[in-house]
Amino acid sequence: MRIKKIGIAAFGKFKNFELDLSDGFNLIYGDNEDGKSTLMAFISLMLYSDQKASSRGELKLREKYTPWNGEKMAGDMEIESGGREYRIHKDFGKTIRTDKTSVTDTATGEKLDLPPDTEVGKFFLGIDYPAFEKSIFGGTAENFAGEESGDISTRLSNISESGDENISPQTVIKRLEDAKFGLISRRGTNGALAEATGELTNLNARLSELRIKQQQRLVLKNEYDETEKELKHLSETAEQIRQANEIRAKRQKAALIENFARQLREYDGKLAALDRKLCGEKAESVSETGKRLAQRVIVSQENLKNFPKESGGDTVKVSEENMREYISLCEAKTKAEEEKAAISAPKKAKITALLLGLALFLAGFVGALTLSVFTSVLSVIGIIFCIFYAVSQNKAKIQRLAYSQAEQKISDLDLKITKLISDCGCATPGEFNSAYRSKIAAAEQLKLRKKAETALDAAQNEFTEFISKFGSFDIQSGMAFIDSIEQTSRRLELQQQNMQSFKKTYAIPDGSADELLHLAQDIVKDLPQESESAADGEKNAAMIREKNARLIEIAKQMCALPLDTIDIERQISRLSEKKNEMQAYYDSLSIALEVMNEAADEMSRSFSQQLRSRAAEILQALTGGKYDSVSISKTYEIELKQKGETGYRSRRYLSRGTCAQSYLALRIALCEMLEGKDEKIPLMLDDVLADYDSKRAETAARFIESYAKGGRQVLFFTCHSWCGQTDNKIVLA
After folding, report:
1. 154-175 burial, b if ≥16 CB within 10 A, otherwise e?
2. pTM more than 0.85
3. Per residue in 530-560, pLDDT tens?
């Protein structure tokens, strides 16, 4: 894998920042707070989101580098891996779950689907974050202290023994363990073998239970046979009772037929009497027609009650001639009042003209004393108005005379109207009008009464004509006759319905009353006496039901009990064979697992030796041959042996510079061994030469540069001057 380009939208101090990186050695230089640590944190978070804060109370990287202005962190990183180029984009959230990460193949534009819960760094580098810190990323011994990295051990073991990081003895061991635990779990309660053992135990227990149940089944079988014998005897008794019940049923049938025949005879007699009374006509038609005609009579009688015989119209003295005279006088009065109103209007207008003329004349006269032309004109106008009034005074006298005559005419008409109303016996015009309307209404009522009397006579005549066919009746007795016919018809209809229901319920055959009586006599003829009572039959039937219920219950219990144990014995036999096979397989897995663990331990010792050898070679190069042997524990604690000495010294007894050299050698050795056959991995170092003196720094610089020339990418972050030779220097400002 190689990092080609970094693009930061917002992260820490950087915003819209881009950085191109080349193959080989990349020196990234800057003073304190220029952003070196920020760049390293960005690379780390782009590859691994799940990082914990240190135990010293420091913030997590996503909290530490969130921009102060609240802008969300985001960025891109272009890499090359396996001969293909990819662009990693990440929008950082407040938590890992809210991060949004995408990996795109830049050549095809296709999105790369990572396996579930897999970090980008784990996918491309093959190691988790602790292994990443202990090998590729970092710079001090503090990154190594405290714990073993399973990813480093597993991957180095695979590469050192098989040459392929994907071929893992641990994978084989895990498969053997999974297969073994699939037979018997760690607790011994689950797994195929444990389940087979448990099932075999259960089958043996069940076999014992079945043998007990077989004895119970035998007892039930004996009871079943005995109950069947008792039921057979009860059935024979039931047959005798059935024959007796059959005789009883025939006698009851004959009684029912005889009863029906009597009802039929009674019905036929009533129907014949009704037919004679109606002279052969149908009762329904007579009843319907009679009710309809009687209803017409009743309605006509009720209608006649609404019109009294004496209407009081003869006492009213207002005739039609009086009303025409009254209307003529009222019209003449209205016309006289209109003429009077027309005469009074000019009089008011002339008085107004007189008053206006006098006012203008007085105003002009007063103004003339001042010799004003305008006031003189006003005076002349006032005189003109006064002359107009004097000229029209004679005409006004004539109009007043006409007005007086109009009033006299209105008064005469009022006297005539009052006399007319009084002569007709009324006090007011309203009473006069009301009396006239009463006379008209009384005449109308008289006409309606005569019409109602005519309708009543017609209805009574039609009803009398209809009812006379059945005898001599008056109106009231005829109506009573129709009601009796309807009631009789209804009773006969109800009796017929009851007889039909009785006939259907008891299956009475068709026939006349005499035929049915003869049939009833034939049924009971030669019948023997009943041999059993109904009470005995009920008792016997109850016992039969009880015995049948017991047989069903015994049969159910027997069905629930096994007939034999052959099936379960076969299951036990098959399961025993299967259990023995699984036990043998389990024993083979245990032996194979023991052998593989021994082989894995041997392989681990082998790659540990390779790691120590390569770290020792690098340390010799860094120290000028002063230290030639290295001891590395599982937790990556280092002990060094100086050339010519026999004992190892812990790093706690070494100088800071020597300690830094030893862990740089270990880090480079780990990186070399973690690489696959065709894929180099980058090395990112954070000012690892800070504790070196000038000589050691120069030696280390030459080694790092030569390491980068071997086709590896090195990102070296520092705030100190570089003592080596490089053309690829990136300065942060």
Report:
1. bbbbbbbbeeebeebbbeebee
2. no
3. 655 545 778 888 888 888 888 888 888 888 7
